[in-house]
Write a structure and sequence with these properties.
Blueprint lengths: L9 H10 L21 H12 L16 H21 L12 H11 L7 H7 L3 H15 L4 H4 L7 H14 L9 H11 L15 H15 L4 H13 L2 H13 L4 H32 L4 H27 L22
Length: 344
Amino acid sequence: MHSLPSPRGLLSERLIDALQDELGILPDLDLSPVENPLTDEDLQLSLYLCYELHYRGLPGVDDGWEWDPRLLAFRRELELRFESALRDAVPRTAEHVRPEDVDLALREIVERDDPGQPSLSAYVKVSASLEQVREFVVHRSAYQLKEADPHSWAIPRLSGAPKAALIEVQHDEYGGGRAEWIHAELFARAMRAIGLDSDYGAYIDIIPGVTLATVNLMSLFGLHRRWRGAIVGHLALFEMTSSIPNGRYAAGLRRLGLGEDATIFFDEHVTADAVHENIAAVDLAGGLARQDRSLTADILWGARALSHLDGRWSSHVLGCWAKGRPSLLRELTVPQRHVVVASR
């Protein structure tokens, strides 16, 4: 992140002002109701910035803010709004699913997605322009440049077989010990190949709240032990719905004449996530439910919450493109850079 983003309302304005003072005072804020916390620009940016202190930090912001009690209390108020809206949109109900059937229940969530809903990956495969692909990649950068980090918060909160399963998945996400194969690095490579800035957080100023919400969901689940079941369900569904879409994204990039530097991230996920799918659904999610049946409802709710927010995001992107307007907060400006094309 080159610099702190511009505020999007009173919450983010006062938060950003306070964070820039070494001994800043976070004022009491009136968290008035917002129409939709799941997409509200001010709330989602504020929550994203609070969470980012637990990842790479924020430019010019004292690291002491990470555990400042005032900031944590402020973040908690934001989280309560976010959680309440999630529960309204995705009701959390009692689950009568046997632990050994959790993987089947997750599969039902995947298959229950509205078959009539347009597919973003299918559109990218056959129709997206290079400009639209760049927008798509900018959206994804909010998470992919720290890929796997939110799910890694669950490692110390698990034990036994589920912990081993999670580490097996994460080992691949972090390149199996090879820095150049860390998935976040592969994504940065893809960004550079299509002329984008691959610096961490470079586009936060133009990434909308509907996208930030998908990233904040992972941080919410990962940073709270009480949501360890939800972050496991989130990861399981994430892996189960990754291989086919990434194959389409890779095909779309090749259709545009882009080379290996642009496609390698997506190609890697086609093969890796086909393996991860079974590990995450059966050994991780199913294994955790077998260890503690009381977490079954959280596992499945975490998966449904992911499905809901991801559906909102893809609908937003496709809806904007259908109307001929940018899906980001403003039009993406790309400097004249070399775009790596496929060799003939």
